[in-house]
């Protein structure tokens, strides 16, 4: 069942045991995908362990933590038409990469396919899955699944050329909701984003994470995306909603301060989305307001 259509890209930072488990699972896939790992400046022996246990994996070592831009670095090396992302604590289920490639082959206007996420070790669905499955985004009749307004990088296969043309992940956002800006730009380029319930990725959340830092980055990046791409009215509504609902602590205050400090950059780079793409995002607003999976906690 070897399938040469897709390359898997993984970014990692000081999570050697989790990464080796992920690479073990990827090596067992019947598709036998090429794998590229960007080691974002790990100091725990990650690079040596990958070279020793998985010599067939292409290992990139930029020497510092690039965040999500580590994926951009890896995609430069990709020669397959499709690229699948996963994190160092997640892995694709057998057959899912081929299934995603089949959908992208069959539907040339689809730019990305997001899979169902099972949280391990219990195999329960991630809370976000229900929102993906029941997405309110209007979709054309031909689309093979629900239309999405964004995607989850750790559970998505994309067209390599579409990713590159949209500019990849923005370096300023680093990590934490970094997908939203890229997803909107893909949609503005004419691509549809979809969810496929028959595809699966497993996620066993690493204990090596600072949830408070990630929350602050997520709030900041949400604000940046909102003011970079949304019209004035929706941008104001989302900003006020965030101000009312995020935890009232120093992390949230820091996030708003960082977002505000970058206002000159935001105004220089601001490019409002086409009306048809903005309409898709507007259809998501009620679900976003009521979402528990999308709340900023930690």
From TrEMBL:
<keyword id="KW-0328">Glycosyltransferase</keyword>
<comment type="similarity">
    <text>Belongs to the glycosyltransferase 2 family.</text>
</comment>
<feature type="domain" description="Glycosyltransferase 2-like">
    <location>
        <begin position="7"/>
        <end position="127"/>
    </location>
</feature>
<dbReference type="InterPro" id="IPR001173">
    <property type="entry name" value="Glyco_trans_2-like"/>
</dbReference>
<dbReference type="GO" id="GO:0016757">
    <property type="term" value="F:glycosyltransferase activity"/>
</dbReference>
<dbReference type="Pfam" id="PF00535">
    <property type="entry name" value="Glycos_transf_2"/>
</dbReference>
<protein>
    <submittedName>
        <fullName>Glycosyltransferase family 2 protein</fullName>
        <ecNumber>2.4.-.-</ecNumber>
    </submittedName>
</protein>
<keyword id="KW-0808">Transferase</keyword>
<dbReference type="InterPro" id="IPR029044">
    <property type="entry name" value="Nucleotide-diphossugar_trans"/>
</dbReference>
<dbReference type="InterPro" id="IPR050834">
    <property type="entry name" value="Glycosyltransf_2"/>
</dbReference>
